[in-house]
From TrEMBL:
This is cDNA clone:001-030-G10, full insert sequence. Keywords: Repeat, Secreted, Signal. Its main location: secreted. The lineage of its organism: Eukaryota, Viridiplantae, Streptophyta, Embryophyta, Tracheophyta. Belongs to the cysteine-rich repeat secretory protein family. It comes from the Eukaryota. The keyword Lyase does not apply. It comes from Oryza sativa subsp. japonica (Rice). The keyword Repeat applies. Residues 35-141 form the Gnk2-homologous domain.
């Protein structure tokens, strides 16, 4: 990553289901929602009924965000909301595990507030910050595919590594 990023003093690397960051200061526990350290990805074309779609996407993101900021959630929330009888909106809200629930809420609030302007009524959109990310799609993209409830993954088996 260091050579890939031209030996800069800080870097962020986003992949599907993976995020890596290094910096020249201790950023653990810090909410980072700077625009110069964020990524926005939007799908095209717009859905047929923009208002109804944005309402369904907003409800799904609201549920996922509430789940992510709940104590004991490990900063992960997933939700599914019906848009039409045949189309559902799947939402994911996640914070890095070093954030407290209030800090997670602050970060996700900043991400979700960008959806209207950045995403419109696109069938999928993702806002990535260094300390949280929010995403919705019209297909199930998160694992496990259970639509709601707590994650079935035992997060105590994962470790974060800080290199000095």
């Amino acid at each position: 990553m260091v050579s890939y990023c031209n030996y800069t003093s800080d870097s962020r690397l986003w992949y599907e289901y993976c995020f890596m960051r290094y910096d020249n200061y201790n950023f653990l526990g810090e909410v980072d929602t700077r625009e110069d350290a964020s990524v926005t990805m939007r799908q095209w074309p717009d859905m047929d009924n923009p208002k109804a779609f944005q309402k369904a996407a907003g409800k799904a993101m609201g549920k996922a965000t509430a789940q992510a900021v709940a104590v004991g959630s490990s900063g992960l929330g997933r939700a599914k909301e019906q848009y039409t009888p045949f189309v559902s909106v799947y939402a994911l809200a996640q914070c890095t595990r070093d954030l407290s629930p209030p800090s997670c809420a602050q970060c996700l609030s900043a991400a979700v507030s960008k959806f209207d302007k950045a995403c419109g009524s696109g069938p999928g959109c993702q806002i990535d910050y260094s300390s949280c990310w929010a995403r919705y799609e019209i297909y199930p993209f998160y694992f496990p595919l259970a639509a709601a409830g707590r994650a079935t993954i035992d997060m105590t088996k994962y470790t974060k590594v800080t290199v000095h």
